[in-house]
Amino acid sequence: MKLYEVHHGFFSAEHISIILEILSSIVSHASAVSSETDLQLKMERACFLLETTHPPVVHFENESYQTYLRLLDTILKNSSLSEELSIESQLVAVCVKILQIYLKCAGCQQKQQSASNHSTTHWTLPLGSAKKEELAARTPMLVLAMKVLSSLESLTFRRNLPCFFPLLVNLVRCEHSSREVQPMLHDIFHDLIGPIILTS
Known about the structure:
Blueprint: H1 2-7, H2 13-35, H3 37-50, H4 57-78, H5 87-106, H6 129-150, H7 154-172, H8 181-199
Helix pairs in contact: 2-4, 4-5, 4-6, 5-6, 5-7, 6-8, 7-8
């Protein structure tokens, strides 16, 4: 981010592409570490034996995604190279991934149902304390993604709506640890999605 903020006036598409590749690699690495159950257990055991705190793996993943998303958003809004670098599609893909991560943590990810069990009732269980803590930690990442999506130009938002609409619908029925999420969802549906439905 610092490199881009200070030197963006001198950057070519190739320079920006390299920076984005670096951030994308960091995000992939952070996600891999965060989802590696065996590694997490080994770290917990080592931290217990050393009587030290557990490394903030979830925070590392969150911060990686937030930095990557902020840079994509900055490039999309301020750079003439955004179209050449397909920044819009990258930004939407990152937002979709963030929504999916949050929904998985909240236990609200979309499940494919076959015709045979379509009428089966599924109970939604309250989240445990560990999941609530993780959800609270992931909330800033989700809020940033929703802010970025809601700040897209009208045509851009409409064009990409099919990518994230089902995820936003799932967010409505989730348990949230922050009061910030539901008002933002209300604004997105009321101010952005509602007019699209009414004019379709």
